[in-house]
Design goal:
Blueprint lengths: L9 E6 L2 E7 L18 E3 L1 E3 L11 H8 L4 H6 L4 H9 L3 H17 L2 E7 L6 H17 L3 E8 L6 H21 L5 E5 L7 H13 L3 E6 L7 H8 L3 E4 L5 H9 L3 E4 L1 H7 L6 H7 L3 E3 L13 H11 L4 H7 L2 H6 L16 E4 L16 E6 L2 E4 L1
Parallel strand pairs: 4-5, 5-6, 6-7, 7-8, 8-9, 9-10, 10-11
Antiparallel strand pairs: 1-2, 3-12, 12-13, 13-14
Helix pairs in contact: 4-5, 5-6, 6-7, 9-11, 10-12, 12-13
Bound molecules: N-(iminomethyl)-L-glutamic acid and fe (iii) ion.
The site of N-(iminomethyl)-L-glutamic acid has 13 residues, from helix 3.
Length: 382
Amino acid sequence: MRELLIIAHAAVALADGAFVWVGREADWRGNAEDVVDLHRRAVVPGLVDPHTHAVWAGDRLADFEARTAGVGYESILAAGGGIWSTIRATAAVSEDQLVSLARPRIDALTSSGATVIEVKTGYGFTPDAELASLRAICALGKLTPARIVPTLLIHVPPQSVAERDAYLSAVCAKLIPEAAERKLARAVDVFVERETWSALEAERILTCAQRNGLGIKLHCEQFHNVGGLELGVKMGALSVDHLEACRPDQIATLAAGQTIAAILPGVSLHLGLPAAPGRKLIDAGAAVAIGTDLNPGSSPLFSTSTALALAVRLNGLTPHEALIAGTVNAACALGLSDAGRIEAGLPADFLVLESSDWRELVYALGANPVREAWIRGEKVSA
Ligand code: NIG
Ligand code: FE
């Protein structure tokens, strides 16, 4: 997860949507039916965005304005706004509308370089609303060329204790088993925070997920340390995501475990939070992935390559580390071993950059460094 092999004057051969040969152009000995000259432009693996909340309705512009006047993200949530307002707006639209609203967001991520995109639920507030969001995510997977990986996110609990317990029971008795049985989700994520679920509650939800054969992930250490990271590492989570408030001892815990540390620099930029300690995590030996966390409230970031560019500036990654974090490590954070690499036998997902130097991918801010995205051997954007 650290090696980056750069081949000068390279060529790839594709057949049936997969890479069948990769090497120096001068070493190619076969015949080819269609030859595409990329004019020495850099080619990199398709990016994997391991963390988005791309299915929502409404907007959070009023929150944004309130925050510029000094009101905190957590206070807005505690007062029934923030994520709650998105939940209300999402409940007011149909499943088809959810798909139409999400489609251009997915297309924006793809043209920014993402060929595999995780999409979470979390803006439905009943098991049925969450199942509808999962169906919308799966419908997106059929409509868009990107590979969509659906995750069920148990996001915010009801405010009264009795309702909270009842919701938790419904999540474990109905929502998770149905999502697993109908193959609507690959993983379950829980938002562990002071204002949301406790580590104890998350353990119950994630144990149920594992019993149902699903992967597990956590949103944790965003604002406070309430045990999410330790729980994730102990339970073998695919990833623990956010980590803006990650302490030095927790960096060591991650470095000693198998769980990927997913950092989301768009959140630090948009909410003004401390940047997750990407540099220290890598130096300690942890595996870091980068995601946009595309969502209406904490990270309205519609570009996966910009997430990598921000991780270099805000989290102290080198360009080389950011590319690995946005490809092979991000694939690992989704439990995928066939994405994020240019290698014979794997799906032919790759990007042709505008530049002949791959580092342009993480350099440009505001201009798209990606000229073409290819998914399973087909060019999807020009
Ligand atoms: O990843 N941290 C919690 N959940 C989302 C935010 C969702 C929202 O603000 O709408 C996140 O930051
Ligand atoms: Fe998130």
